[in-house]
């Protein structure tokens, strides 16, 4: 409804804008210029003051009028070239000669210039005769003839129109054009015909060859999943294990000598296009010499060449990816030298709802792309052959190999095995022959990243459509005597482009350094070790893992113990221990799951490589190389990202179409009111160029660049500038808990074991009902068995005096105060540990770890077997999540209040692990040798619950404050954590994410797994199973929030119920990395979503979100648009704050340049109406100093200090943006119309109106010396300047108006200058811009004295445009009123109470989400 009203209002206002200027009487279109005075009396013929008389040429210098007679120093002679010499050579060219006219005969001298005369009763229709008569009388002569080549004694030196002969279109310039443009068309036609015939022959032969079925090969390894409404990619596309799956067409081409010739010709013709534009522009300033002085034909030729230039370069830009293969011949693969790879354009993420107009324009754009084949991404690669003759090509850093059995090009992969045991047996390595064969199929283990040279990077930057538009438009400026502004605009565009090139190259060089890595490595081949390059590694190779080196590939540890620093790849803060994969482990290999403890990854650093057997080196099996590694996938996602389209980007296309329509209106008005022919076309093109400013793209990114700089000051780094605008529209912010909301590590908070734990075996034998003992925080009074469990049930090791392992394990072990020996007491032991001996009588005997199974996410547990040398007993400890340990332990060993106690601890924000125990008798299992053969399942069966290990996770000091700030800014905050639900609920309440007093229901799967049970976390006994739908219906009366476990989340997703509760769920607990990705994608359906985490297991979610900020310095953080080393929620607040300011600033810059175009359109309509213009210096001031500097100054507004409960609009066609822009346009029109009406009421103006018939309209710079042009210029100057101030209001997203000091300074300075031009009497400064000035002799006649500076004579009869002082003040007051009205409209209406009222009455539904 609102949108349709806006459309009608737009049409009505446009009609009014057109009607008002046409309604003024006394226009050249309907009235006689200088026809009637204010009182209705007929105007007398005017006096032309100080008319500049033409120069005089004489045979004898003595016949020059005395005051115009030249003189020379004694001994010198005045020569015909106007110089004084000792002797005049005979070959001097006379100053009296004229271009395009016969040569003068005999000796002719030109008298001095500067004679002026007042011509009474001046009639523009009889200008020549009157001026010659008056000037002759002034010089006391008569009957002076017009210019001729052989006068008798005297003649006027006013040259006739150049006559270079009749234009016959056979001049050299035309012949050259025929040849050049004919060759452009002819060569393309000849080549296209030749190409068609050659390819027809190839296809005929191709169809006869049975072993080839087609030229176009489609790979369909996996259909792309249907994206969510926001365009978010599916989960598989985000996983590191995903395979290239988009549909792909591969076409084969070969080089042709004829095509090479025509390709070189095409390149030369492209250069020739530029050369010809330079040539014809040069000819314009030579008075159309190449066209025999025919301005009409020359300008018409320029127009045609201009269109051809635009079409040529636009086509070159649009089809640049196909151009190289256009000059090649399509052929079969066996003949091919190149392949053209075509893929459907990657999914575009559209943000925010789309209106009908935008959707329609997108529909038209999509159809146009499909028709011209632009809906696919095209790239060309060289087709090569391996040593064995297998064809392959490199695409997106990956080798695609031809498979004859499927006739498809695909990345090759080797199947090494399914289970851990399968991989563990691959210890023999490869033969050299097998390795060579594999390297041919998958390529070297090296990711080559192409970084263009500076010239190529510049060429790539300028090979975009808008740059073609910009430079094509600027040709008009260079051609039509507006080269000063052309140079200024070109400089701005070039500087901004070179800055973008520099930033992009810097980023690409950084990626290249990260991706490209080579080193030496020892590889086991042919049964022996040899030294090779890391580039030689292939899947199946066995290589030695060396300490201190970077891992060159993804692999599986086969022997030895490894400590890997994965911080550079995953953001893990501490090094991680890696253990060999076991030969008896039938578990399916999952490098990111249960097998992660045996997997090493490319790009990580080996901190320690420790042999477990003296003669066996630390080795690993290569599983993936190159782009198939996790690091390779990361590099590919950085180099080839999915394009994101903001509503801002989509609607700018609609706006440009609207502005082009306005340009067509100006073309019609120029022809109707102003002039016709080529001049009308030039003025209309200028109008289009000013409506769609060439500076518009630069202005749109200025706000983003400034925001990126300010974020950098806060240690927040951005690699994708457009995402800053999206940050300004974030509605949902998702947080990881640990390390983000809470402190990095957990603090040990004690234990809660069962009573008399040291006799746990006897208790279970006697079937004593287990009960919890008291909570013990002091480790010194913790029971010994519990101490042994704390000290041994972990995978902590030491490296250079630093603990290595899981942070929770490190905290637990450190709190136990036991000591880990550097080496185990015996080689058969895994570790040896010593208890503290702080009190007399304590046991000091060591304990030895016999066997250890690492923690894996799939099992959510770990286990160790320990020999207590004091009692000589073997204890088995199993540690893990308290829910999992409950399931693993014997039911009769679980205390009755287990769930209550653990839930209470979780509600207090505790991180709770459980410990179970088992004591084994070696005699019953076949002794130590029998025990060594036990697998994990045998160790972790028949265990009894022993106690709880409790940690506390403390909030960061500033978390609560910044979560409150986000909620104040109407941003919904959500927690997505791998921790328990109750701990997440506690943290959510503590930091204010969940409102105080709000009850929370926890959803979890029931014991049958068939439904989700919702329980009140505060009163689980009272409300163990509530109807969540009924509760949520009464949410307004009794506020409730929801929390779900990972299992409940998965169940709700499978049953398609998650969307129903999504925006009521505050805490998502026990979430896996893939679960986090899915959760983010679901939120992205509902609104623009941000995610923050530490960059480790959050990488997928950070990459999936509209806005991801990684609180990490790791390389993996590059996949996130934002990263920060400041691990605080304050970084998120700062990102939203700067994002909102950047979005508001970008909209402001857009509105300012659009209003610049609208003021220009208004100015053009009025100048067309009166056949006037502004002086050249005024145009330069507007387009160089005012527009460029104010566009930059507008972007300098700083972000508001606080977030408000509203986001800035991103809709260029939204109600607020339209109201702001159209209201200002209406106000500006009204005041300019008022100024013209006021001017027509002045008696000193009437009868002194500008008569365009006295000048050549194509010489636009001669049309400014009049009252009409002066008033229009002054009004519009105030509007150009004030428009920037109007849009400078900070409102809720930027700081106050006056805090943008640069803009306020420029605004005040410019207003002061324009006010001075308006109010001051004639002076040097205002005369430079032709304001309140006149010809020097006229100023002297008017009593202003003789100017001491040069003033180019005015070309109007009046000879000046000095307004009456009283009118100047009235005009200045009108301008100030215009400024006040515009500022008031923006501040009091668009941003004031009417806006607040309409926002409440017509709220935007998509923003209605719970904070």
Structure characterization notes:
This protein is of the alpha+beta class. It contains 43 helices and 47 strands. The chain has a ten-stranded mixed sheet, sandwiched between helices. It has an eight-stranded antiparallel sheet with strand order 30-39-38-37-36-35-34-33. Strands 19-18-20-26-21-24 form a six-stranded antiparallel sheet, with no helix packed on it. α5 packs antiparallel against α6, α6 (295-318) runs antiparallel to α12 and α18 packs antiparallel against α35. The protein is elongated. The two termini are 28 Å apart. Mean pLDDT is 82; it is low at 1-27 and 209-246.
Summarize the SSE layout with pairings.
Elements: H1 2-23, E1 48-52, E2 56-58, E3 77-78, E4 84-85, E5 109-110, E6 116-119, H2 127-138, E7 154-156, H3 172-208, E8 217-218, H4 235-238, E9 248-254, H5 257-284, H6 295-318, H7 320-326, E10 329-331, E11 338-344, E12 349-350, H8 356-371, E13 376-382, E14 384-385, E15 391-395, E16 398-403, E17 408-411, H9 420-424, H10 432-442, H11 454-462, H12 465-479, H13 483-515, E18 520-525, E19 528-533, E20 542-544, E21 554-559, E22 561-565, H14 567-570, E23 576-578, E24 599-600, E25 605-610, E26 619-624, H15 630-639, E27 644-645, H16 647-674, H17 678-691, H18 696-713, E28 716-718, H19 722-727, E29 732-735, H20 737-741, E30 747-753, H21 760-765, H22 784-792, E31 797-799, E32 802-804, H23 807-816, E33 819-820, E34 831-834, E35 847-856, E36 861-868, E37 873-881, H24 882-888, H25 898-907, E38 910-920, H26 927-932, H27 936-939, E39 944-952, H28 959-968, E40 972-976, H29 981-990, E41 999-1005, E42 1012-1016, H30 1028-1033, E43 1040-1044, H31 1046-1054, H32 1058-1061, E44 1065-1068, H33 1073-1086, E45 1089-1093, H34 1099-1104, E46 1107-1110, ...
Parallel strand pairs: 12-27, 29-40, 29-45, 40-44, 41-43, 43-44, 45-46, 46-47
Antiparallel strand pairs: 1-6, 2-5, 2-7, 3-4, 8-9, 9-10, 9-11, 11-13, 14-15, 15-16, 16-17, 18-19, 18-20, 20-26, 21-24, 21-26, 22-23, 22-25, 28-47, 30-39, 31-32, 33-34, 34-35, 35-36, 36-37, 37-38, 38-39, 41-42
């Amino acid at each position: 409804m609102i949108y349709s009203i806006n459309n009608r209002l737009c049409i009505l206002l446009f009609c009014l804008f057109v009607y008002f200027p046409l309604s003024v009487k006394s226009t050249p279109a309907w009235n006689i210029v200088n026809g009637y005075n204010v009182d209705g009396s007929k105007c007398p013929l005017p006096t032309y003051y100080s008319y500049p008389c033409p120069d005089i040429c004489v045979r004898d210098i003595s016949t020059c009028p005395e005051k115009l007679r030249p003189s020379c120093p004694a001994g010198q002679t005045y020569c015909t070239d106007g110089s004084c010499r000792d002797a005049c050579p005979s070959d001097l060219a006379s100053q009296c000669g004229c271009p395009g006219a016969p040569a003068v005969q005999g000796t002719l001298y030109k008298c001095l210039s500067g004679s002026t005369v007042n011509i009474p009763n001046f009639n523009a229709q009889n200008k020549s005769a009157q001026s010659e008569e008056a000037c002759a009388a002034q010089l006391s002569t008569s009957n002076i003839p017009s210019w001729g080549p052989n006068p008798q004694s005297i003649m006027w030196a006013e040259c006739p129109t150049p006559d270079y002969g009749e234009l016959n279109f056979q001049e050299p310039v035309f012949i050259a054009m025929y040849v050049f443009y004919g060759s452009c068309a002819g060569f393309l036609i000849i080549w296209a015909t030749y190409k068609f015939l050659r390819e027809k022959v190839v296809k005929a032969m191709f169809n006869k060859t049975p072993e080839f079925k087609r030229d176009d090969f489609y790979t369909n390894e996996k259909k792309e999943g249907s994206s969510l409404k926001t365009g978010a990619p599916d989960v598989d596309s985000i996983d590191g294990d995903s395979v290239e799956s988009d549909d792909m067409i591969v076409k084969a081409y070969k080089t042709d000598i004829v095509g090479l010739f025509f390709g070189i010709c095409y390149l030369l013709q492209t250069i020739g296009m530029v050369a010809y534009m330079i040539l014809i522009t040069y000819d314009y300033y030579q008075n159309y010499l190449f066209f025999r002085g025919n301005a009409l034909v020359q300008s018409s030729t320029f127009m045609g060449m201009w269109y051809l230039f635009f079409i040529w370069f636009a086509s070159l830009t649009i089809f640049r990816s196909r151009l190289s293969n256009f000059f090649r011949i399509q052929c079969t693969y066996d003949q091919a030298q190149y392949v053209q790879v075509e893929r459907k354009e990657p999914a575009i993420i559209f943000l925010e709802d789309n209106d009908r107009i935008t959707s329609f324009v997108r529909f038209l754009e999509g159809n146009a792309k499909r028709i011209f084949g632009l809906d696919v991404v095209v790239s060309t690669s060289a087709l090569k052959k391996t040593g064995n003759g297998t064809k392959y090509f490199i695409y997106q850093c990956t080798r695609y190999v031809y498979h004859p059995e499927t006739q498809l090009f695909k990345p090759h992969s080797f199947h090494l095995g399914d289970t851990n045991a399968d991989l563990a047996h691959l210890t023999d390595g490869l033969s050299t022959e097998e390795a060579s064969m594999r390297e041919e199929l998958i390529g070297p283990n090296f990711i080559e990243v192409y970084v263009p040279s500076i010239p190529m990077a510049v060429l790539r930057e300028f090979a975009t459509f808008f740059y073609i538009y910009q430079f094509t438009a600027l040709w008009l400026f260079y051609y039509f005597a507006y080269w000063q502004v052309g140079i200024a605009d070109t400089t701005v565009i070039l500087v901004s482009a070179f800055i973008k090139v520099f930033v992009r190259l810097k980023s690409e060089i950084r990626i290249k350094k990260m991706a490209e890595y080579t080193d030496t490595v020892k590889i086991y081949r042919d049964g022996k070790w040899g030294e090779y390059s890391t580039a030689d590694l292939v899947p199946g190779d066995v290589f030695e893992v060396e300490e201190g080196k970077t891992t060159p590939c993804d692999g599986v540890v086969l022997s030895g113990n490894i400590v890997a620093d994965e911080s550079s790849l995953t953001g893990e803060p501490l090094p991680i221990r890696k253990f060999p994969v076991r030969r008896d482990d039938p578990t399916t290999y999952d490098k990111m799951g249960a097998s992660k403890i045996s997997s090493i990854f490319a790009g990580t650093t080996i901190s320690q490589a420790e042999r477990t057997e003296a003669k066996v080196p630390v080795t690993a099996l290569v599983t993936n190389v190159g782009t198939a590694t996790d690091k390779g996938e990361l590099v590919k996602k950085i180099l080839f990202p999915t394009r994101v389209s903001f509503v801002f980007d989509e609607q700018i296309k609609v706006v440009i179409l609207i502005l082009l329509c306005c340009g067509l209106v100006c073309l019609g008005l120029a022809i109707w009111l102003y002039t016709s022919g080529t001049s009308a076309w030039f003025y209309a093109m200028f109008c289009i160029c000013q409506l769609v400013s060439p500076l518009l793209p630069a202005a749109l990114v200025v706000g983003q660049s400034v925001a990126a700089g300010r974020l950098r000051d806060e240690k927040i780094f951005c690699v994708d500038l457009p995402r800053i605008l999206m940050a300004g529209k974030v509605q949902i912010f998702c947080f990881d808990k640990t390390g983000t909301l809470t402190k990095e590590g957990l603090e040990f908070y004690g234990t809660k074991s069962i009573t008399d734990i040291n006799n746990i075996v006897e208790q279970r034998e006697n079937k004593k009902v287990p009960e919890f003992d008291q909570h013990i925080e002091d480790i010194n009074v913790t029971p010994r068995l519990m101490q042994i469990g704390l000290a041994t049930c972990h995978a902590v090791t030491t490296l250079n005096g630093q603990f290595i392992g899981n942070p929770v394990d490190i905290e637990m072990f450190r709190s136990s105060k036991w000591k880990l020996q550097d080496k185990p007491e015996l080689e058969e032991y895994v570790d040896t540990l010593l208890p503290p001996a702080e009190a007399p009588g304590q046991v000091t005997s060591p304990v030895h770890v016999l066997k250890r199974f690492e923690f894996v996410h799939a099992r959510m547990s770990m286990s160790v077997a320990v020999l207590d040398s004091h009692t000589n007993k073997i204890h088995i400890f199993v540690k893990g999540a308290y829910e999992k340990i409950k399931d693993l332990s014997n039911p009769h060993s679980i205390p009755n209040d287990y769930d209550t106690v653990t839930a209470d601890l979780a509600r207090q924000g505790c991180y709770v692990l459980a410990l179970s125990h088992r004591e084994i008798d070696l005699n019953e299992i076949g002794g130590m040798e029998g025990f060594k053969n036990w697998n994990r399942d045998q160790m972790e069966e028949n265990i009894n619950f022993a106690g709880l290990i409790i940690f506390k996770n403390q909030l960061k000091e500033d978390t609560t404050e910044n979560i409150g700030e986000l909620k104040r800014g109407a941003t919904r905050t959500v927690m997505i954590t791998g921790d328990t639900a109750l701990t997440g609920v506690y943290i959510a309440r503590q930091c204010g994410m969940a409102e105080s007093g709000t009850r929370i229901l926890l959803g979890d799967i029931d014991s049958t797994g068939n439904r989700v049970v919702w329980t009140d976390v505060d009163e689980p006994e009272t409300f163990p199973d509530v109807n969540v739908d009924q509760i949520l219906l009464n949410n307004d009366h009794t506020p409730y929030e929801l929390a779900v476990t990972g299992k409940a989340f998965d169940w709700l997703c499978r049953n398609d119920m998650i969307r129903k509760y999504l925006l009521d769920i505050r805490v998502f607990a026990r979430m896996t990395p893939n679960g986090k990705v899915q959760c983010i994608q679901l939120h992205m359906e509902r609104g623009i979503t941000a995610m923050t985490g530490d960059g480790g297991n959050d990488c997928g979610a950070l990459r999936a979100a509209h806005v991801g900020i990684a609180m990490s310095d790791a390389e993996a953080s590059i996949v996130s648009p934002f990263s920060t080393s400041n691990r605080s929620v304050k970084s998120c607040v700062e990102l939203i704050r700067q994002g909102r300011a950047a979005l508001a600033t970008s909209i402001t810059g857009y509105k300012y340049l659009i209003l610049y175009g609208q003021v220009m359109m208004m100015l053009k309509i009025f100048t067309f109406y009166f056949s006037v213009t502004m002086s050249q210096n005024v145009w330069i001031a507007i387009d160089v100093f005012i527009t460029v500097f104010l566009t930059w100054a507008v972007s300098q507004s700083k972000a508001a200090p606080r977030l408000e409960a509203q986001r800035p609009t991103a809709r260029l066609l939204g109600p607020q943006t339209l109201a702001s822009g159209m209201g200002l346009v209406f106000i500006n029109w009204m005041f300019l119309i008022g100024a013209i009406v006021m001017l027509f009421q002045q008696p000193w103006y009437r009868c002194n109106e500008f008569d365009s018939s006295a000048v050549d309209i194509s010489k636009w710079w001669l049309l400014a010396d009049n009252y009409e042009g002066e008033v229009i210029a002054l009004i519009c100057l105030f509007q150009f300047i004030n428009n920037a101030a109007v849009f400078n209001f900070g409102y809720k997203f930027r700081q106050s108006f006056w805090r943008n000091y640069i803009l306020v300074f420029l605004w005040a300075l410019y207003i002061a200058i324009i006010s001075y031009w308006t109010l001051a009497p004639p002076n040097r400064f205002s005369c430079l811009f032709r304001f309140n000035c006149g010809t020097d002799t006229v100023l002297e006649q008017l009593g202003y004295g003789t100017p001491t500076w040069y003033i180019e004579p005015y070309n109007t009869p009046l000879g000046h445009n000095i307004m009456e002082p009283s009118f100047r003040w009235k005009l200045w007051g009108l301008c100030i009123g215009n400024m006040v009205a515009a500022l008031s409209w923006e501040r009091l209406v668009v941003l004031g109470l009417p806006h607040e009222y309409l926002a409440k009455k017509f709220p935007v539904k998509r923003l209605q989400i719970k904070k």
